[in-house]
Amino acid sequence: MKHRKKWIAAALAAALFTGLFTGCGGASGATATSTAAVQEIAQGSGEAGAVADTANGTGGQTSLDSGALTPQDSRKIIYNATLWLETKQYDQASAALLEAASQAGAYVQSSETSGSAERGDRSVYYTLRVPAEHYSEFLNAAGQAANLTRRSESTQDVTAEYVDLEARLASLEQQRQRLDELAAKAENLEDLLAIENQRTQVQYEIESYTGQMNVLKDQIAYSTVEVYLDEVTELTPQSPSFVSRVGSAFRGSWNGFVAVVQELVIGLIYLLPFLVVAAVVIVVVVLLARRAAKKHPRPSAQKQPGTDGANQPPKYTQMK
């Protein structure tokens, strides 16, 4: 009986020792697992870059199928244009231009005006944001609002950059979800702080890439069109001849000459008060100088002895 009790006590002690050992090992394993998971997530930035490079066809041997992107639907293109217009009827042309923008669903991002109606040299500069689907329609309508002298267009394909940002954001979102799961399972403060630090870095990258993505989306959805509208007295011919070019050059030269003369006259008017004061000062100085000369006349030159005619030796004439 005594031996049986000894065996039972030994078995209980062994079970207790085994349980304690297993518990300590489990806690240590949980901590190691959590730390390893954080380290794995910490390498996520490199994985995000690898995913993005793969999307661009530069990482590994995997690349996007070129046939997966159709020009109409998936290509991400930014359209920009600049128009130079002139008109004799400035108010009507400006109103027609703004009406064309309104019809296209565009809005004025910025504007700048100069000149005056009295001189007939008004001008306005618009920066318009036009929906991409109405881009060509607006350019045609704006060209009819006034005399179009010049038109410039450019396009920028940002498909690769757009896909790159999408891939990076998708990878970072997965990292953030994984970090949230680890934070919920963290069993000590050290692991929780490590997870939160990594999550902060991931969140910062997500916000940065999201900002870049929003800028791209805005530029893709709304084209930028710059418009210069000038008020003129004579419209520029669409195909100017040599004679018209000579006449235009002469008119420009004459207008420049008239402008210079006008500026000189205006400058003289500005200087007129100073000239009057200077003239008064000069007159006063001259009068004072003359008065001083009258009060103090110069002494007459005295004759030197031996210079009169009586003391001069007789002149001899040569006999022929």
UniProtKB/TrEMBL annotation:
Keywords: Coiled coil, Membrane, Signal, Transmembrane, Transmembrane helix
Keyword S-adenosyl-L-methionine: no
UniProt domain DUF4349: residue ranges: 75-285
Signal sequence range: 1-27
PROSITE patterns in the cross-refs: PROKAR_LIPOPROTEIN (PS51257)
Transmembrane segments: 264-289
Coiled coil: 155-199
Region (Disordered): 296-320
UniProt keyword Transmembrane present: yes
Xref: InterPro entries: DUF4349 (IPR025645)
Name used for this protein in its record: Uncharacterized protein DUF4349
The species this protein was found in: Allofournierella massiliensis
